[in-house]
Each structure stands twice: as structure tokens, then as C-alpha cells.
């Protein structure tokens, strides 16, 4: 059976569109598993909370390249699958909360919510769209008043 | 003797001159010593060449022999990829419709990715949502790391802590 030119064009166009839609995970609806860590950077040798463990050596090495602190403790760690087009919440502490939405492919929208110790109401600090393929890391960070630093590390869960 | 006269003398020796030119050269030879000397020289050269020039017998006609040489020169100077290029061009002409179809398909794919699927944008876009908050972004392409630092703008020097 020989297809006419118009039929062939339609077939090729439909095929190409099919490839375009199927390869885009925004339409495939797959979850992305993220790991989120709240990290405390300090020069203290030990944390007051014995439950706080030091970050792995690779992360510590990377942090020390950029920041002045000697020690980095994991305050909280959350793993969750982030659904497409739907916000997933990561409550890291009483003062720090994240909302993450999967935008398709390896892109995410991240909201950072914060609350001072005295503040009653939680407020949005910042938001952003971030491409986060496997192996890439996103760090949200700030400074505490006691000269230490806080970090929210987001990465793909392998 | 100038060059033109020498050439004319050579033509005279080869028997190529007729009429007025031949008479002119004959007059030179009668009147000019240098013309006679040049003619003598040319005669010696011709005799030497005739005596020593290798004789080459052809198995074909003169025209056919030179045509073969011309063809050989042409093929030697032809570009090595010329034959391939011709094949490619012929293939392109033959498959023009299919190529046009594929082009439309590719355009549709690009359209689908850009406008329908969306989200194909810059790697990182961040904005501050709090009036007292400032932000500094840092991207380490080598280590695949993006750092977004937020700081309290109401506290002087707070961002310079690290």
C-alpha cells in the first residue's frame, strides 16, 4: 500500500507530535523523588542536640570550599516524591518550610517560607524555578544572628 | 635582432612564411650580418634536435592521442568528492518532498516543546517575596550547584557574614 503525500505528511506530523508529548515528562505524570536537608553551619565541634549528625564528607568538603564554617550538622532530612503540577510540602523546622512543585522534566518551582522566633505569622521569603537534574543540587541559605548559617539542600534522591 | 625578427626568421627557416614576409626576411639576410648569423645558429639547433630527438611512434591517430592526454589531465584535476557530491545532490532532488515533510515535522516538535509543553526556560529564576529580604544567587556549573542566599536587608552588614 502506498501512502499519498498528504497522508504521509499527516503520519509524520502525528508521529513527531507523539514523540514530543511522550518524551516530555510534564505529560507523562511521573513523580520525582527529592531529598531535602536542613543543615546548620557552625564552628562548634558538637551540636547541643545529639541527634544532629554531621553531613557526609563529600557535602562537608563542598560546603567548606565556599563557606567559612568548620562543621555542618543535619538538623532535619525529608524524602518525598514530588508530583507533577502539585505542591508538595517539606516542613524542615518550626521556622522553615518549603513547598515544591514539579513543572515537568527536571524543573521545579520552590517556595521558601520562614518565621522568626518572635514572629507569629509565617511569611514567604522567596520563590524560584530551578532545573534540577540528577546530580545537580540547590542550596537555599542564610545567616543566623549567632554567626552561624542555615542551609536547605535540595537534590534528587538517587 | 629583436624578438619579433627572430621569430620571423625561425618561421622562415621552418618554411612557414609566404609572400611579403618571406621577401622581407630574404632582404634581411642579404643586407644584415646579424640576420645571417642568427639563421646559421637556428640551422645548427634544428640539425642537433633532428639528430637527437627520440622518435615516438603512435598506435593511434594524432588527434586520438592528444584527446586521451586531455582526458587524463581533466580527471587528474577533478575534485575527489565531486562524484559523491553529485550523488548527494541527486538524492536530495529525489527526496525533496520527504525532506519537506520531515522539516514540517521538526517544526511541529519544536512548537510542541516551546509552546505546548512549556517550562523550557532558563535553568534558574528566583525572586524575593519579602520586603525586608535581599538575595544573592550563585551558580557553580562545574559542580552542578546553585546557591540562593537570602539575607535580612534591615540588618546592616548581615549579608557580609560569610
Structure description:
The complex is a heterodimer of chains A (158) and B (162). In chain A, 21% of the residues lie in helices and 45% in strands. With 158 residues, chain A is α+β, with helices and mostly antiparallel strands. Chain A folds into two domains: 28 residues; 126 residues, no CATH class. In chain A, strand 6 and strand 7 form a beta hairpin. Chain A is elongated. The mean pLDDT of chain A is 83. By secondary structure, chain B is of the alpha+beta class. Chain B has three domains: 50 residues, no CATH class; 35 residues; 39 residues, no CATH class. Chain B has six helices and three strands, in the order ααααααβββ. In chain B, a hairpin with a 4-residue loop joins strand 2 and strand 3. In chain B, helix 1 packs across helix 3 and helix 2 packs across helix 3. Chain B is elongated and about 120 Å long. The chains are: A alpha+beta (158), B alpha+beta (162). Chains A and B meet through helix 1, strand 6, strand 7 and strand 8 of A and helix 6, strand 1 and strand 3 of B. Strand 7 of chain A pairs antiparallel with strand 1 of chain B, so a sheet runs across the interface.
What's a quick, concise take on this entry?
The complex is a heterodimer of chains A (158) and B (162). With 158 residues, chain A is an alpha+beta fold.
What is this structure's SSE topology?
The complex is a heterodimer of chains A (158) and B (162).
Chain A: H1 5-23, H2 25-28, E1 32-42, E2 53-54, H3 57-66, E3 71-82, E4 87-91, E5 96-104, E6 107-114, E7 123-131, E8 137-143, E9 149-156
Antiparallel strand pairs in A: 1-3, 1-9, 2-3, 4-5, 5-6, 6-7, 8-9
Chain B: H1 3-13, H2 19-31, H3 33-52, H4 62-77, H5 82-94, H6 96-116, E1 124-128, E2 133-140, E3 145-152
Antiparallel strand pairs in B: 2-3
Helix pairs in contact in B: 1-3, 2-3
